[in-house]
Amino acid sequence: MRRTLAILLSLAVTMLAAVGTAPARADNPIVQTIHTADPAPLVHNGRVYLYTGHDEDGSTWFTMKEWRLYSSADMVNWTDHGSPMSVATFSWASKDAWAGQVVHRNGKFFWYVPVVNRATGRMAIGVGVANSPAGPFSDALGRPLVENGEIDPSVFIDDDGQAYLYWGNPNLWYVRLNSDMISYSGSATKIALTTAGFGARTGDANRPTLYEEGPWVYKRNGLYYNVFAAKCCSEFIAYSTAPGPLGPWTYRGTVMPAQGSSFTNHAGIVDFNGGSYFFYHNGALPGGGGFTRSVAVEKFSYNADGSIPQITMTTGGAPQNATLNPYTRQEAETIAWSSGVETERASDGGMNVGFLENGDYIKVKGVAFGSGATSFSARIASAAAGGRIELRLGSPTGTLAGTCTVPGTGGWQTWTTVSCPISAATGNQDLYLRFTGGSGYLFNVDWWQFAAGSFVTETGNR
Ligand code: FUB
């Protein structure tokens, strides 16, 4: 994927350069290193955790083997946490890591997902459980929680503590979860799909309402919302509201029209730091489409009556709501935008960026340098000859604040720390780490950090 992306991105840059226009640096879609789909955001301890599916490169179907996780404190710079759960987590499942949702209760994180039950060949809902939002998640039950061949679980915990699991395509089901979150009371029940509740669809006798799949159920100011993928195909995002968790539902209209080169869409909504955010997916990356999707986000405000305004896909994305501190250690895989970069598991258990070639870069947005940085350090490894990290401001070709030389270290996971002097990095800046060197893969980066004060040369382990 990175090669296709790099070629298409460099073609776009060349075309823009030819007409004398600098490329606008968009921050949607959120992830550029792989294709992601089916966003499910969760706010926890001052961060937004964004759980996604992973569309395999070149897919011609929903070929999805694992889920991925990203998190952000500012809605713009997203840290890659890798894959905390996959189809292999569920010994009874064979394939299809499709759209799920994570909820937090009793100090645990429960991840409800649809996967194919190998024994029956049908879609079933499994539950992963973890002690932290980043996992690792394990199979909570060793078997499906519920199975009826339908998909896309969403879980909502009401103020009285009663939790509900909703899911379904073509039907919309619910069941009351017990407080352990891994068992239920009563049986799976269909929510009546009436045109008053879910809008009228024409041209499909089997599906008289707009409801298609992907419910996202929550409560705000006493009103219950069900935001869902409507009509097929292409899908748009619509919503219904109700006075209670089980209805009666009233269709309220379009949240996001069909746009963006993917015939599916999938909604996830959270409030964070005083703002409301709508997550969705499209096919906006080069090479993107209906089976190679990308997760994106828009900020929005509810209307005074609680209705959701119509939201349009943008390339700009959500505004940054906090600056990033360069004087604390930052993971190299904290990214607002990147070109040619991939991520992988690092030997310390976290992630590193890798497969870096000459000219690849990472943008980190809104970096608060204050009165000025004087040095930069990075944890690097290289089984090749290394290269250089250029620290540039404002754009990949902007002011050069410093250059760190990266040596070969004898292995892609043989880590050492390099440092170099920095000048002219003051105030709030978009920082670009641009990787340069010879041909082939250059080096990996695990983390980086700036310092103020006198520069002391440092190369070695710490
Ligand atoms: O990603 C696979 C399926 O496509 C999801 O389960 C649906 O919601 C649709 O996005």
Describe this entry's structure for a reader:
- The structure is a single chain.
- This protein is mainly beta and 462 residues long.
- It has 2 domains: 273 residues, Tachylectin-2, Chain A; 122 residues, Galactose-binding domain-like (Jelly Rolls).
- Helices cover 5% and strands 45% of the residues.
- Strands 1, 2, 3, 4, 5 and 24 form a 6-stranded antiparallel beta sheet that branches. Strands 6, 7, 8, 9, 10 and 11 form a 6-stranded antiparallel beta sheet that branches. The chain has a 5-stranded antiparallel beta sheet with strand order 23-34-29-32-35, with no helix packed on it.
- Strand 7 and strand 8 form a beta hairpin.
- The chain binds beta-L-arabinofuranose.
- Beta-L-arabinofuranose (FUB) binds next to strand 1 and strand 16.
Quickly list its features.
single chain; 462 residues; mainly beta; Tachylectin-2, Chain A; Jelly Rolls; six-stranded antiparallel sheet; 35 strands; disordered N terminus; binds beta-L-arabinofuranose; Cellulose-bd_IV; Glycoside hydrolase
